[in-house]
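Thread: Newbie trying to understand structure tokens

Hi all, I'm a second-year student working on a class project, and my supervisor (Dr. K.) asked me to get a predicted structure for one chain before our next meeting. I've only ever worked with sequences, so writing a 3D structure as a token string is new to me. If someone could post the tokens and maybe explain what I'm looking at, I'd be very grateful. Here's the chain:
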Amino acid sequence: MSVKHGNGQSQKSWRTSAWKWLVPGIGIKRWLVLLFLGVTFLALGVAYWLVDVYREIALPVVFYYITLQFIPRLARAALFGAVGIGAFVVALIQLNRSLLAPFVQPGSEPVVDTVYRHRQRERGPKVVAIGGGTGLSTLLRGLREHTSNISAIVTVADDGGSSGRLRRELGVLPPGDFRSCIAALADSESLTTQLFQYRFSEGKGLDGHSFGNLFIAAMAAVTGSFERALVESSRVLAVRGRILPSTLQNVTLSADLREEVEGRVNRVAGESRITESGGSIERVYLEPGDVRAYPEAIRALLEADLIVLGPGSLYTSIIPNLLVRDIAQAARASRALKIYVCNVATQHGETDHYTAADHVTAMARQVGEGMVDVVLANDRLDVDLTAMPSGVGGIVTPSQPRSARLVTDDLVDVEHPWRHDSRKLAQAVMDVYTQWRGRSGAS
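---
Reply by user tm_fold:
Sure, no problem. This is what the structure looks like when written as tokens:
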């Protein structure tokens, strides 16, 4: 019984996949029609020639049987037509298999499913994701399954770890967050992607560096610019979308921190030092303050259908992008739906005891009102955080913001409950966008 069920499922799956070739917008039917017309005209030409030969030349008696003259003419036409169509279909299928065999991995999905999903993603909404760090790459990994029209705007204020060392020693923009985004949007989790994320754990001068960071830094030297290095690196990994810096200028993220006991305000310079210095964050700012935004980032924001802020560190990953004045103005002026994705858990030294509403209030205090239409927050609060890493606080309470609509859902990664699950998050974001588009009548 199980064998029959398997065969039935296989046949049903084949029929379902075959019909996908006829789905509108997949870009196949027009060429099938043209191919059919070409074969038809070729057949007509051959038929006219054969008729002329048949009428003008005396053929042996055997041709009477070969051409089925003893069968009525309409029956002959139907029989030859059926045989021709069958041969045409079989030849086309086998030809496709032969041509595509070098590019299809064993056990992979049918080609039609790959083409179908590719076309669906191409027609997906134009999404701009703003942030940095692990949170942004988590979102991008899920979004790439829904649309190929993705632009990730990444902060350039990182000055810690491998990125900070390369920034100080080579004078390049910090490549770490860009590397993570490139890997997240890569077409497949291939060996090349794993290589891009590989981090050296030993070796003088190499310890702590990731291969991707070194690759981007080298590409910047070869191409002559950091933005060109991102384009070429994205091409190597067949990235779906674009990764854009918020600015190309060298900036330092600084913060005013208020001491918990004495209440004094201390100024700290450097993104990596902000959460380590202690005290609550009063405000963060860029030095220099008046930096120019990367033009492609502004264009992406103005053309976007959906803008997603976060997830990620509020003060050190998300807000630094919006402190570039033109980025904030473009985001505010855009007609896109603006969703703020609140972190699953709070961060020590940055958002201790913050609720979802507190995140939005802090953002408005830094960059002004009107930046968020919807707040998407996790509502699964019964998670075990006993194995959480240092720096992670408690679960964020999904409280109602004053100036935005609150949407909640189960967004937790079961294996790492202080983080988002990329598939759950992307689906929730797209659901909110679909509902908004339906209500607003946006196309």
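A couple of things are worth pointing out once you decode it. The mean pLDDT is 86. Residues 29-56 form the longest helix (28 residues). Feel free to ask follow-ups in this thread.
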